Amino acid sequence: MALMWYNLFMQDVLTFLRTHLESIYSRDWDTYQSTTSTDLTLYEHFVTPHRQEGLDFHKFMIENNWATQGAPTHISILEPKVQLLAGGQVAVCSYTLMISVVRGEVIHHRSVNESRVLEMREGKWWVVHVHKSPAGGHDAS
Fold first, then answer.
1. Is 141 inside any structural domain?
2. Which of 76, 87, 73 is nearest to 27 (CA)?
3. How does DSSP assign 25-92, residue by residue?
4. Percent of the chain residues past pLDDT 70, beyond the cut
5. pLDDT at 137
6. What is the pTM of this model?
7. Is residue 103 part of a domain?
8. Could you tell me if residue 102 is inside a domain?
């Protein structure tokens, strides 16, 4: 019974994570905002070597279609691992995110290693921290 509960819990976390990530790449600000804490902290190596805070930067990026420049996109969450902490109130998700983007007749793939910390607040998951690191350092076309 405990294993079944654990598997359902993990599936819930991964479904939430996919919804959150897809909101970024589909320019869905409303979903992004409804899954991300206003006190978000994050490190994105390709943007700045400094910690960013809050949602303003990502609102600008999502509204201006930075992630895909409007091209058809598919995301893959590779090798996900979920660690539950604080009695199941906190989940640390680590994975490699592969982003596949169609540009002309070619599909480009890029990957980044990510960790996202989720906190359960009033029965709902919220992303509270993100850390991104390079994964391979190349764009495989």
1. no
2. 73
3. HTT-HHHHHHHEEEEEEEEETTT-SS-EESSHHHHHHHHTTTTTTT--EEEEEEEEEEEEEGGGTEEE
4. 95
5. 55
6. 0.88
7. yes
8. yes
Domain count, the chain: 1
pLDDT under 50: residue ranges of the chain: 140-141
pLDDT at 71: 84
* Whole-Å CA distances, 29 to 10, 20, 22, 95, 124: 25, 10, 11, 23, 18
- Count Cα neighbours of 18 within 13 Å in the Cβ-side half-sphere: 11
CATH number, domain containing residue 122: 3.10.450.50
Expressed in angstroms, the distance from the first to the final Cα of the chain is 45
What domain range is 63 assigned to?
Answer: 2-134
Q: Which two tokens stand for residue 62?
A: 């999502």
